[in-house]
Write a structure and sequence with these properties.
By secondary structure, the protein is an alpha+beta fold. It contains 3 helices and 3 strands. It has a 3-stranded antiparallel sheet with strand order 1-2-3. Helix 2 packs antiparallel against helix 3. The longest helix has 15 residues, at 58-72.
Length: 105
């Protein structure tokens, strides 16, 4: 039996495997990339705005989740799901008790 060949999308994106997001500091507009796999579908997704401070307060996180709730619910093949997981997780909040929403977030 021949060994399994590696998916060329993984090499092109420069990630170590499926569903493993990676920062892209040199990309002009997007801050992360992931080759997402859900069931039999595989999709390369770029997500997150480059150079923007996100998730500084709990209020910002709450606003992001309310704005993007429908897209987050679409699952692993949506950019919003990955942004919610990578950029907006509660463990990455700079000020977890601050409910104040910061304009421009």
């Amino acid at each position: 039996m021949a060994p399994k060949s590696r998916d060329p999308r993984l090499a092109r994106a420069g990630v170590s495997g499926y569903n493993k997001p990676k920062r892209t500091p040199n990309h002009p507009t997007k801050s992360h990339i992931v080759v997402a796999r859900s069931g039999g579908q595989v999709k390369t997704i770029r997500f997150g705005q480059q150079g923007v401070k996100t998730n500084q307060t709990a209020g910002q996180r709450q606003q992001f989740k309310s704005r993007h709730r429908k897209n987050i619910a679409k699952g692993k093949l949506s950019a919003a799901w990955w942004a919610d997981k990578e950029k907006w997780s509660p463990s990455k909040t700079a000020q977890p008790k601050n409910k104040r929403w910061i304009k421009g977030s």
